[in-house]
Amino acid sequence: MKIRASLTRRVFGRATTVTAGIAISALALSALPASAANDPGVTDTEIVLGMQLPQDGPASPGYNKVDDAMRAYFDYVNSKGGVYGRKIRLEVKNDQYKTGLTITTKDSLISKEKVFAFIGSVGTQTHLSVVKDINRRGIPDLFVNSGYSGLYTTPSKYPTTFGGLGTYVSEAKILGKYMKATFTTEKIGILYQTDDFGRNTVAGLATAGYTFEKGKTAATFIAGAQAQAGALDAPMQQLMDNKVEVVVVGAVASAYASAVASANKIGFKPKKWVVISVGSDATTFQTILYTKGIPLASSAALLAGTITSSHAPAPADATDEFVVAFKKINTDFNKGDKAWDNNVLQGMNIAYQMTSLLVNVGKTGVTRKNIISYLEKNGPSITGAGFAPLGYSATSHVAYTGFWIGAYDATASLKPIGAARQMWTTDSGTGPVTELTWTRPAIGADSLPKGFSAK
Amino acid sequence: MKTLNVRKSLAIVSAAALLVGATALAIPTAGAAAAAPTCKTDVKTNVETCTGALSNGAVYEIRVPHANFHGSMYFWAHGFRPTYAYPGYTPPNGKTVEELTPFSANTGKNITSQMLASGRAVAAFDRKTNGGYNWNAAESIPLMKELVDIAKAKYTSSLTKVIIYGSSGAGPLITGFNETYPGVADASGMMAGATNVSAALRTGCDLFYLLSVFADPNIKGCAAFGAAKGVNGHMLALQQLGLAGAVLTAWSKNLGAPALETPAAVKPYGIPQRSALLLIGLLGGLPTKSSHMDGITTNALIAEQSINSTVAILENFQDALGTATFTGQAIGEIAGAGFYDNTKTDFSSLLTEEDAARFNLGLSGDDGIAVMLGALKAAPRITGTPASVANYAKLYQPTYASTTPMVLLSNEADRLVLPGNAVQYNDRAQAAYQARLDTWNSQSGVKKGAKPLPNTLSIYAITPETYTKYTAAGLPDLAGAPAVSGVGHQSFTVKQSMTWVALMEISAYAKRVPSATVAQKYLAKTPYLSIDLDFRPGELKYEK
């Protein structure tokens, strides 16, 4: 210390600048360790979580409700004292579904907001633009709202990333099995975006025996192009010219909405639309068509009959205890757009599962490594509103492995096809589609995960 | 889009990434002893200026602010300079010191006055270059050592800390100096430092090759470099730059809209030329932001973010090719013609899954990507000359064994020395430090010695989140002022440079780089310096 003091005098004794003053304090501080023992974003009283999603812009309708729903549930948890006394703070960044903003807001969440983990981030292209860096830093990347299987099926590639949806592959496989049994004589065609989403959909349908011919029964578009007026007229015309009767859609909801609008315009009336769930979200579908001048009642009519699948209860299912509980919390705590729908349900469910995870790792177990390890070893023990278990393990970070198949009614509500909801399960590879016999655990007391404690 | 301006490229390339002739750091013996400096003190400022010549005749200059000098002298080495005179460019003549402290091309300012005002002494030397390989570490390192010795002899008691710092192509000089003369420098710094010349040049050669496949098969690029030496060789190299420039100019005028017709295999697919431009840039790892394009902002014409990034790549491309041209010709003179061989390159592996997703629309979707990569796979490759390829493989690389504290400063969107250089250097230096630490931890007893100290800190100037501006016609405004930070080469604000200077000084006194807490305290006070010490704006496409 004597030497250091001497050095300080010699170095800076005659300096007159601010820089020198800072340097003196810097020398003193440099003896401190480079980083604190605990992970960023966790104190005895708080856990900070980060999320990225489009809050505005063309890709935002519907999805922009997920964050408010998550925050509402966390606020509810906080009103009960927080998890082991730690309040949960959700920091949200609007990336407008522009990957450049996804990158800069990711940087901010890490270095300024100092989040402990990312949770529920929305979008495949956007999340792919940051997933490598998040993983490199060892930050948990939980319940991602993307069904792209490539994010989850090789944990060695993205070890900290865990899904929040089923994969497009498994969903397409299950829908494919249904189609094989149902549409035995109809000509099947597909509209898909030529990216990860479409690639997953085609791969899933292939396991059910469906192959499509480009230019004939397979119509494609470049993801993002659907935003241009009339962009999907030609693909729809192609399918109509090739006498396709059932159109499968492997694309986002804005594309499905545009496809329906184009089909309407050219007089193409397929017997059925079969749409991957992300693409058929009622709120997104109707909001986008509303911006194109189509009234909600008319868009509901356009959506009616659309076949899709879901891992969770329909938001209109008033008999489901999670729906009932989450609706109440939404009413009491949501400070944003609280119109109840599938997106709000998804947000609530993710927050419920995150709370369950924090409860399960214990008061002293909230470290990044523990979170990852726990999910790989005990992932299926994290339950929520989903009717299938989470598929997390050391070899897979896929979330929901099961879906039920339904069709939209005239009120834009998804209803099971058949007398009762039937769950199907499969993997994201080439495994078979089988019936799922799994009983969802009941919601915890007071709508909190089992074992919840504020102390 | 500005047309390719060879003159401008030549000026810009002043800091191009180049270590020439550094197949090994064979340090020549010093020549005749240098004469004592001639000194004069300004009575008003009390700044003493000393000048003189090193043993090989290279001129040097030292300035010491006696009023507040606190013992640190900074020895500056600017980057690469082309050897030969071209219209609008004069190579160093060895009679004047071109840069005494870092100079920013964006701001037009150096930091000499700020350095002196803060009590820091400055020094630098410059010399005539007689052929590309005369600007090399083997030659520069002993000259720098000579200058340090002169300064130490002159300021025996007052000079207490020696800080060696430089930019761009001076990277090998800085790292090589620390390896050759351990303990002489108390700290060091690299500004946009080229630390992996081999990897950087390989990417530059790839860019030429890719342009030849997708645009003009007359482009030979690195296959033509080194075939002739001297002025003639450099003129021939410039012809290659001209061919590439013509393509970029054409693309800038038509905004890359027409369908791609080269190679013929892609013609039926109607892929716009801009998709090939974007693909080439991504395969080369060029920044997807540029001086005027933020990679985010859209309008009616630039309808999607990936199109914005495509224009960014176009804006970055010409300077990246300038680097490849001058570096390639210089390396070609040393390693021999035919040093570039891409027969084993798997270009499809250079497109990351993340980029394929992020820029999917600009690349014309998965189908467009598949068609272009397929055409690329089928295109004829460049077969190098084995002896030259072997020589090229022996280019100097840092050993990372030096324990001298090193502070790196880079722009996140530098198009000349890609920021991946700093990323890769930091990764390797941190790994070397960790290995030293692991060894130390595994030892016991008196032989254990002093605990290794962290000696590498990498900091980045970042861009504003958005900054693209459009003309009244809706076109990107590429003629206006560049982004205030994070773009260009060796272009930093005075505050950014001075923060770097301060961090080097702290390192010199502490014998280690500052802790995260200390570093972030400084960074947070400097506009557009990232406080994220693990920031990673890009990676080099090649390890070596």
Task: Report the biggest beta sheet of chain A as strand number plus sense, adding barrel if it closes.
Answer: 5 strands, parallel
CATH superfamily of the largest domain in chain B: Alpha/Beta hydrolase fold, catalytic domain
Helix content of chain B: 25-40%
Strand content of chain B: 5-15%
Q: Largest interface by residue count? A: A-B, 55 and 55 residues
Lateral strand order in the biggest sheet of chain B: 1-2-3-5-4-6-7-8-9
Helical segment tally of chain B?
Answer: 14
Rg calc of chain B:
23 Å
Number of domains of chain A: 3
Classify the beta-strand content of chain A into a percent band. 5-15%
Distance between the termini of chain A: 43 Å
Our Rg estimate of chain A from Cα atoms comes to 24 Å
Architecture (CATH level 2) name of the largest domain in chain B? 3-Layer(aba) Sandwich
- The CATH class designation of the largest domain in chain A is Alpha Beta
- The CATH superfamily of the largest domain in chain A is Response regulator
Number of strands of chain A: 14
Description:
The complex is a heterodimer of chains A (455) and B (544). Helices cover 38% and strands 14% of the residues of chain A. Chain A has helices at residues 2-12, 18-29, 66-79, 99-111, 124-128, 131-136, 168-182, 196-207, 233-241, 253-266, 282-291, 296-303, 321-333, 342-361, 368-378; strands at 46-53, 87-94, 117-119, 141-144, 161-163, 188-193, 218-221, 246-250, 272-275, 307-310, 402-408, 414-416, 423-425, 434-435. Chain A has a five-stranded parallel β-sheet with strand order 2-1-3-4-5. In chain A, strands 10, 11, 12, 13 and 14 form a five-stranded antiparallel β-sheet that branches. In chain A, strand 6 (188-193), helix 8 (196-207) and strand 7 (218-221) form a beta-alpha-beta unit. The radius of gyration of chain A is 24 Å and the shape is globular. Chain B has a nine-stranded mixed β-sheet with strand order 1-2-3-5-4-6-7-8-9, with helices on both faces. Chain B has 544 residues and is of the alpha/beta class. Chains A and B meet through helix 1, helix 2, helix 4, helix 5 and helix 6 of A and helix 8, helix 9, helix 10, helix 13 and helix 14 of B.
